[in-house]
Amino acid sequence: LLTVTPHLSLSFPNLFASPVLLTVFMVVYNFKSIQVVPTANEFVDIALSRVQRKTPTVIHPKYPIKTIRKFYMRKVKYLQETITEKIARILEDFPRVEDIHPFYADLINILYDKDHYKLALGQLNTCRNLVSAIARDYLRMLKYADSAYRCKQLKRAALGRMATLIKKQSGLEYLEQVRQHMSRLPAIDPGMRTLLLTGYPNVGKSSFMNNVTRANVEVQSYAFTTKSLHVGHTDHKFLPWQVIDSPGILDKPLDDRNTIEMQSVTAMAHLQACILFLIDVSEHCGFSIEDQVSLFKNIKPLFVNKPLVVILTKIDLVRYENLAPEKKRLLEELSQDNVRMIGMSNITKEGVEAVKHEACDTLLTFRVEQKLSKNNKTVENILSRVYVAEPKTKDPSARPLFIPPQVQQDLANPEEAEARKQQKVLDVHREHEVGATFAPDLRKGYNLKNDEWKYDPIPEILDGKNIMDFVDPDIQKKVDALIAEEEQRLLSMEEIDWGSEEFFISEEKEALYETINEKQTLARQTRSDRVTTRAFLPRKYRTKTFEQLTKELKDRGVDNETLVQAHDSARSKSRVRSTSVFTKSDDPRERSVSEARQIIDAKDRGMSVLGKRKRGVSELTNRTRSKSKTDRFAGMPNPVRQMDALNRVHKKIRSMAPDAKRGVTDTHIFNMRPKHLLTGKIRVNGKFDRR
To answer: Parallel, antiparallel, or unpaired: how do β-strands 274-280 and 308-313 relate?
Structure first.
C-alpha cells in the first residue's frame, strides 16, 4: 500500500566525523494494488478447485491404510492452507486504520464507516482462525481412522465445514465494494507541498485547477459538480506541487454536513497545505457575499497553523472597486489577520498566475518559518549540527603562485604571441583546399633513426611474409614476352590445314564416345536422384517385377533360352507344392520344409507364427497358390539347420511381442485414446482431456 520515494537529502557528521546521508521519504498510498475480493461462493469454488487440481485423486486397491490416511490428510491440510493464505492476503492488502495517515483514516471513516470496515476485517480474521481449528481437529481424527471409508467421510466433513464457514462471511461483498471505491481514490501525498481549494459550490475551484495544473476536472454551471477530491500537479521554482480540488461546502453545522462536504473538511483538518478560500464577488454561484463570509468564519478554526489566501473570483464580471461599501467592508474584515486577498478570472486568465505564485511563496515561507521555530530551533542550533570541512595549513612556509616567464610575456604582449602562434594543420588544409576530406599527417611524428624513412611505403604482410619480397622487378618484361609468344602461336595456327585426314575421327570412335558419354550422364543422374536421408533397403528386400529382372539379366549377358528354362522350372516347383500345410509326412526333411514354407508364407500375409488363429486349409492353399515365392531354404538342405533358423526367428519375434512392434523401427501407436487422459472423475461440466 505504501510507495516510498526519496525527497530530501542532508549531510550530518557521525561519531567518526564522516558525512552521513539522511534521506527524508515521501509516502504515497497506492490503493490500486489491492487484489479483487471474491464472493463467498467464488471463494469456495476457488479453494475446492485448487485442492482438486493440486492433490492426488485416485486411491488404488493395494494402498495400505497408512497411505490412505496421508492421502485424505493432505487434502484437508491443503484446503486449510489455501483458505488461510487467501484471507491473509486480503487482510494484508487492506490498510489498517491505526497504521495510516490521519487524513486517510478519517476519509475511510467518512466514506465506508470505520466500525463496519474494522468489523468486516475482524470477521475474516476470526474465520481464518476457525478454519485452522477445524483442520487441526479433523487431522487428529484422520490420524487414527481405521478404514478408507471412515477416512473419506472425515475428509468430506472437514471440507464441508470449512466451505460452510466461508459461505457465512457476508463481509466479503462489502470489502469488494470498498476495494473498488478505494482504487478510484486520488493518490494524495500528505507530506508534499499542497494547495487546497475550498469554498462554496460553483465559485470556480475546478476551473482554477484546470488552469494551473495538468488535470482535467469536469466543470459545469450547476452546484456540486465535484463530488470527491481531485488531485493535479504543477511546478513552481523547480519544485513539484500538488493542487487538491475539494467539493463545495455549505454554511451549516458540522453534524448536518453530508459525506461530500465532509471530504473537504477532512482535507482541511489533516493536510498541511496552503488554503485557498475562493469567494465569488459576482454572486453568480447562487450565494451572496454575506453567506460566503459567514462560511469563512464558520470553518476558520480549520485554518489554524496553516497559510491562508483569499481569492476573489469572476472579477471579469464585477470588479472589487465596483462593489457596494457594505460588501467591501465584509471582505476587508477577512484580511485583518494578515490574510492576502487577490482577484482573478478563470475566463480571461487575469491574475491566475499571480494567485499561483503568491500561494506557493506563502507556503514556502510558512514551511521555513515553521521548521526554524519548531522546538525552539534557531539558525545557530541548525548550523551547529552541520560540519563544514576547512583545510588546515601544513607548515608556515610561503608558496606563492608560479607563472612561467613565457606565459607572462605572452600576457603582456598578446600581438606577438598571436604572431608566434603556429598555424593549425586544419587551417592549412582549408587554405590550400587539399582534397575534400581532411586527414591529419600521422607519419610526421614518427620517431625513426633516419627521418627520410618516415614516408617510405609500409610493407604488406601475408602469411607472415612480406609481399614485396616476392615481386619480380622484371615482371613487366616477362609479361610482354608472353603476349608476344601468344601472338606468334596464333599466327602459326592460321597456316595449319584443318581439312586434312589427321583431324577427322572415325564413325566407330564417335559412336563409342557417345555411348561412354551417355553412361556417364546416367551415372551422374542416378547419384543425384539417390535419396540419402532415409534408411538404406538391402538388396534382398527390394521388390522387382519380372520384366525388370528379365531386362537386368539380359543386360548382364544371359541369353533368352536360359531365362525361359529358369522361369518354367520355378513355375513347376510352385505347382507341386503341397496343398495342405498340415500334411503328415514320414520324412522329417519334407515336414520341416513344409512348416518353414507355412511360417514364411503366413508372415508375408501378416499372420502370426505357426498360425495362432488356424484358418481353413482351402483358404491357406488358395493364398499359397496365388503367390509364387522362392524357397528361402533352398541354400539350407539340412532340416536341422532349417529348424534352428526357425527357432531364431521365433525368439526375435517374441522379444518384440510385448511392445507390439514389428521391428526395431516400428513407432506405430495402436491405442489412440490412452487411459490416463480419459479416466477419472465424471464431471457434468468441463473437459475430460486432462487430469
So the answer is: parallel
How many angstroms separate the Cα of 250 from the Cα of each of 219, 227, 278, 296?
A: 19, 13, 13, 10
The separation between CA 385 and the C-alpha centre of its own chain, rounded to angstroms, equals 49
Through-space distance between the first and last CA atoms of the chain, rounded to whole angstroms = 38
Angle between the 639-656 and 588-604 helix axes, to the nearest 10 degrees?
Answer: 30
Question: C-alpha distances in angstroms, 104 versus 128, 182, 231, 240?
Answer: 27, 11, 15, 22
223 backbone φψ class: left, alpha, beta (φ>0; ψ -120 to 50): beta
Please write the tens of the pLDDT for every residue from 60-77. Answer: 888 899 999 999 999 999
The radius of gyration of the chain from alpha carbons, rounded to an integer in Å, stands at: 53
Mind spelling out the 3-state secondary structure of 621-652?
Answer: HHHHHHCCCCCCCCCCCCHHHHHHHHHHHHHH
pLDDT at 85: 95
d(CA 357, CA 655): 95
pLDDT tens for 514-544 read: 999 999 998 888 877 765 666 666 766 667 7
Q: How far is CA 193 from CA 5, 360, 390, 490, in A?
A: 15, 8, 35, 101
The 3 state secondary structure assigned to 604-629 is: HCCCCCCCCCCCCHHHHHHHHHHCCC
**The pairing of beta strand 19-29 with beta strand 2-13:** antiparallel
Q: Of 190, 203, 15, which Cα lies nearest the Cα of 103?
A: 190
Q: Which amino acid is at 38?
A: P
pLDDT in tens, 16-61: 333 333 333 345 567 888 999 999 999 999 999 999 999 998 888 8
Sign of the Cα pseudo-torsion (71, 74, 80, 82, in order): negative
SS3 for 277? strand
Residue 482's H or E segment, with its range, is helix 475-493
